[in-house]
Amino acid sequence: MEACTADRQIQTVVTSLHDPYAPFQDGVTKTGTAVAFSSVTDVTPGRSGSVFRLLRNAMTTHTRRTLLLLLLTLAVGTALSAWLFRETLFANGGQEDAAQGRPPPAVETARVERATIADRIRATGTLQAPEAVTITARTAGRVDKIHFEEGQRVAKGALLVELERDRSEAAVERAAARLEQRSSAEARRKELMAKDFVSASEMDSAEAAAREAKAQLRIARKDLDDRRIEAPFAGVIGRRLISIGALLKPGDPIARLSRTQPLDLLFMVPGVEIGRIAPDQRVEATTPAYPSRRFDGALTLIGTEVDPGTRTLPLEATFDNPDGLLKPGMFMQVALIVGQRDTLRVPEAAVITEGPNTLVYALRPPAEDEKNSDAKVERRRVETGTRRDGWVEIRDGVAAGERVVVAGLQGLRDGLAVRPTSASKASDSGAPPAESTPPNESTEERR
């Protein structure tokens, strides 16, 4: 009986070499999976693929899950071993370098400085002229002379346009002659009335005629004056809207005149900031038109109410514009200075980011001698604030006077011995620090 069973097992395996699916016809094995595995002990190389397929098809779901779990455990163990090896290597790196006689790497350092940080509220605004008017014709007439160019800066009272004056001058002469005549008639009637030669009504008529002549003369002179169009205030002429010979009627536009010195900047800030805003606070502004320039102004007007729709408060600042670089209508980025505080800062090159962490490498011990041969670097997690002009505010993680690495950061690790040098003597010179701006866009803004 046992011999027959063995023969059937051998036959099943041999059959599988020719037809790998024969043992599983009709969905079941003829000899049993366990028997098929135990019987496959010697196969020819040319048939190995069929045997592997037989083994794969014979694996149960439980077997596959077990194999997957083993592979996952192996992967986790390998990763953990690699991490432990790396940490051990880093921990012993300085000792190994010293044991092998390699000199410590050279790094450049800079001192952690104290600085004054300005608190800013950032906004955007638009420049506008405090005075702007469209100059128009006040009387009818033909343009005789134009005394301005587009973009020209003019003074108050400067002559801009002259209309033809011949008829107006004649009208003035005629009105003056009529006034002289009626004034003489009035004077004669006064003399006659004193002698009772004229009635009171005749005297009244003479006086009325004289007053009418005076009024007509004033009108004629006003019409003559209106033919000289002058600048009502100092400013810059915009686009010219007329040409010589054009026939104008009252109200026709001639040009646009704007006062550009100084200029007003209108902007809005969140209404919740109203408690930190006061008149005459300093305002800094920049514009894409002059990316390297900063313009300084002062807060001159605080709105009386918060807009209920936007919950913002309108503000107005005044900026000097002696060179005329700023133009009405320009878009400006605004920083309203609402306060300042003392803090620490380091060069921007010293700060590195690894995932969610912001780090610096500080020297230990923090000796005053920048060439201290016993110095090592300490990996520090820091809290940063503003970034401006190549500096970064450090709110926590370092102390004033400590040195941090600004060059040679590649390959550094915690506890590594280094040869420090100073990155810049300027950082130790005691030069006054430049102002910085805090990062919170609602209350402490970056310029």
UniProtKB/TrEMBL annotation:
<feature type="coiled-coil region">
    <location>
        <begin position="160"/>
        <end position="230"/>
    </location>
</feature>
<dbReference type="GO" id="GO:0015562">
    <property type="term" value="F:efflux transmembrane transporter activity"/>
</dbReference>
<comment type="similarity">
    <text>Belongs to the membrane fusion protein (MFP) (TC 8.A.1) family.</text>
</comment>
<feature type="transmembrane region" description="Helical">
    <location>
        <begin position="66"/>
        <end position="85"/>
    </location>
</feature>
<dbReference type="InterPro" id="IPR058625">
    <property type="entry name" value="MdtA-like_BSH"/>
</dbReference>
<feature type="domain" description="YknX-like C-terminal permuted SH3-like">
    <location>
        <begin position="344"/>
        <end position="419"/>
    </location>
</feature>
<keyword id="KW-0472">Membrane</keyword>
<dbReference type="InterPro" id="IPR058792">
    <property type="entry name" value="Beta-barrel_RND_2"/>
</dbReference>
<feature type="region of interest" description="Disordered">
    <location>
        <begin position="366"/>
        <end position="386"/>
    </location>
</feature>
<dbReference type="Pfam" id="PF25989">
    <property type="entry name" value="YknX_C"/>
</dbReference>
<dbReference type="InterPro" id="IPR006143">
    <property type="entry name" value="RND_pump_MFP"/>
</dbReference>
<dbReference type="Pfam" id="PF25954">
    <property type="entry name" value="Beta-barrel_RND_2"/>
</dbReference>
<feature type="domain" description="CusB-like beta-barrel">
    <location>
        <begin position="269"/>
        <end position="336"/>
    </location>
</feature>
<dbReference type="Pfam" id="PF25917">
    <property type="entry name" value="BSH_RND"/>
</dbReference>
<keyword id="KW-0812">Transmembrane</keyword>
<dbReference type="InterPro" id="IPR058637">
    <property type="entry name" value="YknX-like_C"/>
</dbReference>
<dbReference type="GO" id="GO:1990281">
    <property type="term" value="C:efflux pump complex"/>
</dbReference>
<feature type="domain" description="Multidrug resistance protein MdtA-like barrel-sandwich hybrid">
    <location>
        <begin position="132"/>
        <end position="253"/>
    </location>
</feature>
<keyword id="KW-1133">Transmembrane helix</keyword>
<feature type="region of interest" description="Disordered">
    <location>
        <begin position="415"/>
        <end position="447"/>
    </location>
</feature>
<keyword id="KW-0175">Coiled coil</keyword>
<protein>
    <submittedName>
        <fullName>Efflux transporter, RND family, MFP subunit</fullName>
    </submittedName>
</protein>
